[in-house]
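Researcher: Go.
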Amino acid sequence: MTRPVRLVLTLHNHQPIGNFEGVFENAYRDSYLPFLELLAEFPELKIVLHTSGSLMEWLVAAHPEYIDRLRGMVANGQVELLGGPFFEPILAAIPRRDRVGQIASYKTYLEQLFDTPVRGMWVPERVWEQSFAGDIADGGMEFTLLDDSHFRNAGLADDDLHGYYLTEDGGKALKVFAGSERLRYLIPYSDPQEIINYCRNVGERFTNAVLVFGDDGEKFGVWPGSKDHVYHNGWLRRFFTALRDNLSWLSVTTLSESIDHVAPLGRQYLPDASYREMMEWALPSVRQQEYHYTLKNFEHHHDWWRLKQFVRAGFWRNFLVKYPESNEMYSRMLQVSRRLERLEYEMPASALVDQLKEARAELYRGQCNCPYWHGAFGGLYLPHLRNAIYGKLISAENQIDAALHPPGSWVSIEADDFNLDARKELKLASDQLIAFVSPAVGGHLYELDVRGIRHNLLATLNRRPEPYHDKIRENAGKAVSTHGGGVDPNGGVAFKHPDLDKKLAYDTWPRKSLVDHFLQPGLSPESFLGGEGCLSDFATGVYQTTIKRSPTQVECRLSRTGLVGPYEVTVNKTIQLSTNRPRDLIVHYKLTGLPAGFPWHFAVEMHFAGMAAGARDRYFYDARGRQMGMLDARLNLPPMERIGLVDEWLGLDAALDTSIAAAFWTFPIQTVSQSEGGFELVHQSTGVVPRWEFVAPENGEWEVTLTLSLDITAAQAKQLASKPAHTDAQLLVR
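Model: Structure:
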């Protein structure tokens, strides 16, 4: 006898901050709209829908008719809305104050927009730590759902998971459903009758069973091949029809209805976890390969079915270790959050309230999770997503500084542990620029924010090994070329660019700016790019630091003495920012201790990120204004006193002047990563290396001054010509 079963279909729709307009539009056309249109033909069926705040804001602006349709389905009870943190941050990656603020703000936003109570929430990427229970409750939420693997990791068996459990943190209670991995693999890939049979089997064995499907809505039209399968070939219609035909015992309902009519299964505390694949991706690359090898060797063991629930991989927060660039964004976000919290506390309640609300809205947008990690698809490897995060964080800090400083030019300098490495970094700021310097790592300039265009010119990414690179090597010459999209219809490996195996290369020092090199005389650019010919450890060594400030000028003075071959040499590097040149960063080098009469080859590596390659309106130019190639060009230029980089779309002209003519190498840094359409080559930054080959004078000293000038006149002209972007900041902030 089949007992009644409740089936909850939960969809999570999301597009990240900074994704291309066309991606939003295609997902709307291929998935979000057709799903609701078909669901409307089956009014007996209910679903639970989570739409991330970044996507919801876009839908409100771009497709108000969709919002009207959804509002009607919410009003008649066919759709239950889930809340969550507004802009889909990983909860582990933001401070507690922002977790509660984001959750409460999105709850308010949805309740006002749809005139409905919002009782539950979606946990982004199902990244869970037990302390989140109290934060979620403080944000006004009654329940959430996680993967059943979270519960199995706590020691529960599959038969214990047909419902929800109570949990708490600090006495603050939360109800948690177990989303079925079995249903995630069945929907939408198996025949609908197989799904019905699975539900029937559970109903034959359990009373008051609640089965929960929770997964990406993009499975229904966006994922490769899914549009044809789900809509054109009729899978979703057949599935809905099968559900309707079995409503006598199978209630297709909501999470709230299940809580209101079914008792909890008990109390449970869940270990730190995410979905299985996410925890694998969080492992270091070598350990990830060992983990897969171990699973493969044990999967045929006679007790594997009993053991596997206790086998776990990594921990989400270690993405911040695996990828230092992710930690740079994370640390920057924490700085902005702390500054904003302090300012909100110190400012009178009535002062600058709208300005601070907008700053908090931008901070929340800058916490969107997608570029903070990397797994099966782009994420961290996608420059436009990283650039968007930095853009929002810079925008928030612009609002904060506007509240603290009177109009006009100003400069400041401070030392603190800005990147959480237990060593102090330096922050030089003006009303136009923000520069972060790491004395403990080569005296690098590791972030350079152009405030007027909200752009970090050093949002770079190093080339490093990934486990899937072995697959690229194994399929060299055999993989199908997709020429910009799609997948291999035969199920093989797809390359979006040719000869990717030949493009695999790994960096041995951070690709930042003011990276100091002593090189072999006559070294070729090819050898340099291969990491050869470096004669010292100045590129990553520790520099001693002093700072100097006045009302009109700030500077940091960095000094390091080290060996270049057998010789002890000192590099003094001074970085200066002033009110009379607030968009210029002036760097003075003085080398001492050079043995007289010996040939020397000194170079300073610079990088420029977010200036696109392969486009004719992004190019190099010389002192006469002559174009010298696009920004992905490999140039080996004779001595000259200026090189410039222009990105007309960004509206930025970056000019590097040298007091002594320098020869220049330029080159692109390109990573090889995987995406939905196959393996691809991604431009991360443009390297520019001024270098000098000279014979040391009698006094053993040599000096040069570099001036980096950042002109955004073109961008400002475009901003004046365009209307200001609409913001719903007043709805965002608690």
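Model: The chain has a mean pLDDT of 93.
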